[in-house]
Structure formats: C-alpha cells, structure tokens
What does this fold into?
Amino acid sequence: MTDKTDIWYIIINPNAGKRRGSKDWHLIARLLGEAGISFEPIFTEHKHHAIDLTRKAIARGWHKFVVVGGDGTMNEVVNGIMEQEDMEPSEITLGMISIGTGNDWARMFGIPSDYAGAVETLARKRTFLQDAGIVRYYQQGLCYKRYFINIAGLGFDAIVVQKANLKKDKGKSGIMVYMRTLLTALTSYRHTRTTLNIDGREFSDDVFTISIGIGKYSGGGIMQTPDAIADDGYFDVTIIRKIGKMDIIRHFRMLFNGRLPEHPKVTTCRARKILIDSVPEIHLEVDGESLGHSPIEIEILKKRIRVVAGEDFLSED
It folds into this structure.
C-alpha cells in the first residue's frame, strides 16, 4: 500500500489554459521531480470530474492535493474536499500550479504564475487556513449547493462569466476575450430589483452587480472586493447599484486600482450570511463557474481550507 504521508495527489485539467494542462505537464512533472516532490498524477476527463476524483482519493487516504489548472478546477477540488466525510477539511492541504485564464485565486495568495516559482512555493509547504463559502441557489426549480474559496458574483458579473465560459467551451479564452465579453454585455444587460438580507438587515434596491468576496480578485485581476481578508470570518460585499453604461466606461479603471468602493453608486459592507432575491431572477457565478439563479443563500465558513500560499502573501499576514 502506498504511503501517502508526503506524496501529493496532483489533479491536472488537460484543457485548462488552451490545453496547456496537457501540453506542459511533462515540463511541470520534471520541475516537481527536480524539487524532490513526490507525487501521483491524474488527469480530469470531463467537467466536475475533479470533484469525484478528490472525494475518492480522500476515501483512500490521500490528504495532500495539488491542482494543475485554473480557478474552475480549483473550485471543483474544493467541493470534493468539502463534500466528503472521511476527513476534516482543515486536515487536508491544497496547493496550486496555475495554468488557467484568470488565475485570480493564485494571484490573491501570491503564487507565482511561472511553473518554477509555483513548484518552489509548493516545496516550501507554508500553509494558510482560509475561509470558504457555501451558496444555495436554484436551477430549473431545484435547490443546489456549492462551495467556493474566492468570489461569488451576481447580476452583470454572472452574465459576463456565463458568456465568457461559452466562448471558452469553443476554444476562445484569455483576458482579452473576457474584457471584450464584458464590454459587449454592457449593451444588453439591465439592472434587477433586488432584495438583500445581510446578517438580518434587509433592504431593496435596483442592482447592477454584486460581488461577495473571500479573495480580492476576479476576472483576471479585477478588484471588486479590494479589502477582502481571506481568514477573518467575513465576506467583503460590494454592491453596484443602477448605473449608466457611460458611467461604467468612464470609471473602468476603478475596477483594477482598488478604488471601486469610492464610487457614489457603490455600497460596501462585511457579512457572514446573505439572502438574496430578485425580480427578474438574478444569476450567480462562483470562482468563475456559472451556476443558477435566485433565491440565493450565501454563508461564510471560517478557516475551513488549508492552502499552500506564496511567501509574499504569508509575510503580509
């Protein structure tokens, strides 16, 4: 029987980053070997496969995982960790070598984008216990749940992700594809009348988009929750109310420079539990994965996932 104490179970998405998962795996494997990292690799074969692979691996005794892929693959592995009942999630260690499109989770945790730097980070084994979120939502009349570790987006953000993912399925990906999708979606999207209950305080408004963040980044470097702290037991919530399209374009830079909360149409707060309903239905994405629609319930789970973080991030802690 394999001793899994110091061996990493590596889940590779071969299609991530325009199939870089498949093309570059031999290079990543060589770097891992040179760093003295023992591992067992497995490739995903279809959407949601990483969830099942993770659950089964934990049942066999694996407790150290590395994702070679993007934010979507990381989200699937997190859901496999959170759904299983064989081990406490905080006893499992999760690392990442990014090859996706946005890589927003890795950006938050200071994991280098180059393979050698990411492998060096993994070899240091310096970990951080971060929060997770659980969201309950509806799709075709049925209620589902999903876990996430970066950001949940509702409204305009969810529509952009949905359209960008459709392009990704056709082999078109990258930050510029996402930006073009964002700008073209502005021509058709309208606000929704949304009711929010934030830790027991309820209010309604015309809402353009909502970001609920454990991490700071989404969409390949956009900062809609720039002050988020990943282990404080709170979501950072950014609500952009009804806003004109030219106003968005004029202040587009605010999405990247951390000054979005200064805009007069923006409301921010911190929350542990959020209930959301809307007319018409408001749509949802988490960690860049399109899900369903309202009514939606989102709740924080404090210090639930142990992750390997970069040295720069840990030195700021």
Summary: The first helix runs from residue 16 to 23. The longest strand covers residues 289-308.
